[in-house]
Please model this.
Amino acid sequence: MKFTKTLALVAMMSALALSGCSSDEEKDASLTDGSLNGGMNDASVSGLNDSSGMGGSGMGGGRYGNGKYGAKGANGLPPEFSDPNNPLSKRTIYFMLDSSQVQQDFVPVIAAHARYLLANPSQHVVLEGNGDERGSREYNIALGEQRSKTVAGMLKAQGVSESQLGIVSYGEEKPVAMGHDESSWELNRRVEIAY
Model:
């Protein structure tokens, strides 16, 4: 009798676990189809001249982007993100060699994104840290992470909730410029703000 009750309990727990897996799989599927605006792919790392932002990844659409910044544009973000005269259209922050200090030209860009995130508390960003090819792989991963943390710290200092921020470092793994010279390295020392 005790064995039967134990077997029945195990069967019930298994059924609950399986039903939980099923709903998680449905949620995961919704993340990839863009309906909940999660998940990223390689297209979400935008190039420097990509004023539309995230390469059509669908990030930021759906439930986001209907705050004071108006209706959503074709890429799921408000039109301000496509206006080259608006600092929100810039989502790449640059750094000097071997440094996690933001270049001064990009401080207003971070401030604009902070204002947007404050006005849209359900919006989230991933701060993608990158480095150039010089230095070891481990060093560049650490430096990319520190660069992401620097931008996150600046956003949090302006009131953005930590829950709105994600941090990732790609180190030297996702260059936007393939050359082996200073002009290419400058373009690869960056943090991408991915909505």
The first helix runs from residue 2 to 32.
